[in-house]
């Protein structure tokens, strides 16, 4: 059951890792991958670290959205679909940080 509850956070961390690889920053890819592996260790600080990384990841998606939309606007290319997709990814990443508020995960990570 815990795995299913963690699935949004896992997907978000994998997307962040892929994003950093696409940007050519393999060193930064280690952060979401390390947090992903740490989720197997049920400690309070792991949950808080994961939440912090997910919030920062959502901010990175917002930044990327603004940069890519601006570049497309400068080139006169359509940008609406890009903004919707990346904005949705940012929102999903932000909301995935809330999975640690469920009763099951609060108990598992000792957040009570």
Short description:
The protein has helices at residues 2-22, 26-38, 44-74, 80-96, 103-108. By secondary structure, the chain is mostly helical.
Report on this structure.
The protein is mainly α. It has one domain. α1 packs across α3, α1 packs across α4 and α2 packs antiparallel against α3. The model has no long low-confidence stretch (mean pLDDT 96).
Write out key terms for the chains shown.
mainly alpha; 112 residues; single chain
What's the rounded overall pLDDT mean?
96
Structural class, by secondary structure, is mainly alpha
> Element order, helices and strands?
HHHHH
**Global morphology:** elongated
* Spans of at least 5 consecutive residues with low confidence: none
Oligomer: single chain
Largest sheet: none
Q: Report the β-strand fraction as a percent range.
A: under 5%
Contiguous helical run count: 5
Helix content: over 70%
Total number of strands:
0
Count of domain modules: 1
Amino-to-carboxy terminus distance: 18 Å
What is the radius of gyration computed over CA atoms, rounded to a whole number of angstroms?
15 Å
């Amino acid at each position: 059951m815990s795995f299913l509850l963690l699935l949004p956070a896992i997907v978000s961390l994998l997307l962040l890792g892929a994003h950093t690889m696409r940007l050519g920053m393999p060193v930064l890819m280690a952060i979401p991958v390390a947090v992903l592996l740490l989720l197997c260790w049920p400690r309070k600080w792991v949950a808080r670290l994961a939440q912090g990384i997910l919030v920062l990841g959502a901010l990175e998606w917002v930044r990327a959205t603004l940069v890519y939309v601006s570049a497309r606007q400068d080139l006169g290319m359509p940008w609406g679909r890009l903004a919707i997709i990346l904005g949705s990814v940012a929102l999903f990443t932000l909301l995935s940080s809330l999975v640690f508020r469920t009763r099951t995960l609060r108990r598992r990570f000792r957040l009570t």
